[in-house]
Amino acid sequence: MGEGKGSKGGCCGWFLVLIVAAAIVAGLVVAFRSKFHHSDKPEPVPGPPGAIVTKYSDALKLAMQFFDIQKSGKLEDNKISWRGDSALKDGSEAKLDLSKGLYDAGDHMKFGFPMAFTATVLSWAILEYGDQMAATKQLQPAQENLKWITDYLVNAHPKDNVLYIQVGDPDLDHKCWERPEDMTEKRPLTQSSDATYSSTLLKHAKQLFDFADTHRGSYSENLPEVATYYNSTGYGDELLWAASWLYHATKDNTYLEYVNDNGKEFADYGSPTWFSWDNKLAGTQVLLSRVNLFASKDVSSSANSGLLKYRLTAEAVMCGLLPKSPTATSSRTDGGLVWVSEWNALQHPVAAAFLAVVYSDYMLSSRTARVSCSGHSYKPSDLRKFALSQADYVLGDNPMKMSFLVGYGDKYPQFVHHRGASIPANAKTGCEDGFQWLNSTKPNPNVAVGALVGGPFLNETFIDDRNNSMQTEPTTYNSALVVGLLSGLVTTSSVVASFT
């Protein structure tokens, strides 16, 4: 796969495997309010990628490496010295090859729901910022990492109405502390009743969307064993998210009609939410704003009327992020980090910053000068400034003077909650005796380069302890979000040419 603009079109169908999980599950609501308005002279339209910002380029190259660390299966061109082949028999009990995919976090589970979110966000980043990735030689690694996930997700959908959503038993998995290469415990399956490759993905996406829409419900209600780890709080947001992507892939207006018809029930217009693996509404609103901003002439007036509701809510999301906005969230640390959850605190600010930089680029490219927040106007550059503040906090501009991206800067977490990183590659340990490495007082012998850990507490303290999984455990979906954010900041953007 090449690194030029043409290759981005070839991978355009890849994002559609979000539906493998995204069309099955759920959402969480946090409110702010605002209204739409734009005026005055718009800021200049961005051109081709300009000068590379070194710190973001360096951070992007590191963040991309964590996907290699998380790979399951027979590794190809392995660049991680302490990783090897693992989970080669995954799926064999169903006569399937489910050996690929990514381990979810510091454990060895393959959860389909958050993995699909990882694939979607990584795809979105490629579609919007592939030219910038190419400028930093990260486009090909991004595409290859994405295909490693989509190969797995396609194999997990062997029949129209059969989807394997999980590999491994989380209870058994968490009783062990071992390298993935040394796993011997059972890994049961959990089932829920180039251009050619893109076509294959699109076929699976359409089938899975129809399956999910016909059999509506939260997957964690039907499969309660997963609720402890990734509890779904709804499913409507995933249906809207999936239909939005299918519209972008196919230009089939029935999917646009779907988001408008079902928006009355699921969109929660006017009530902004936090973007995450569990709630895709904010992402859906930003994605549909693209249609309203760039392609309104191609859709009916009634469809545009519905799209405007999504766009107004997307702008309310943006107003909640801008620190000086009348509707700005007060949920921030003293150092300026948006702070929503004690567990994996960095997920929400990085996700919000990614949406902010994308929306700011949509505004620039569509010549939309302003977004209005309760009568106060803000420019695209204000959104970008917010995104920069969150990225810089992650990279060390914070009261702790610590980078939360492992390997970046002089000070970063040394006791990452990650089995493979914590155990020497030549150690001979089994399931239970490996806990000596979890409890070791020595830093990890292997550096989980590019891992974005959970992050600080609200009072901006961070306890670098391997047993403190709340703060020191990385996740692959965090990695997709930070890759998207850094790709948007690494240089000036030219988003419209890549995805219209």
In short:
It catalyses: Endohydrolysis of (1->4)-beta-D-glucosidic linkages in cellulose, lichenin and cereal beta-D-glucans. With 500 residues, the protein is mainly alpha-helical.
Low-confidence stretches: 1-39
Number of strands: 5
DSSP strand content: under 5%
* Name of the top-level CATH class: Mainly Alpha
Q: Specify the CATH architecture.
A: Alpha/alpha barrel
**Percent range of helical residues:** 40-55%
Rg over CA atoms, rounded to whole Å, is 21 Å
Shape: globular
- The helix-and-strand class reads mainly alpha
How far apart lie the N and C ends?
21 Å
Order of helices and strands: HHHEHHEHEHHHHHHHHEEHHHHHH
Task: Characterise this structure.
The chain is mostly helical and 500 residues long. It has a single domain (51-490), classed as Glycosyltransferase (Alpha/alpha barrel), CATH 1.50.10. It has 20 helices and 5 strands. A 3-stranded antiparallel sheet has the order 1-2-3. A two-stranded antiparallel sheet has the order 4-5. Strand 4 (371-373) and strand 5 (376-378) form a beta hairpin. Helix 4 (112-135) packs antiparallel against helix 5. Mean pLDDT is 88; it is low at 1-39.
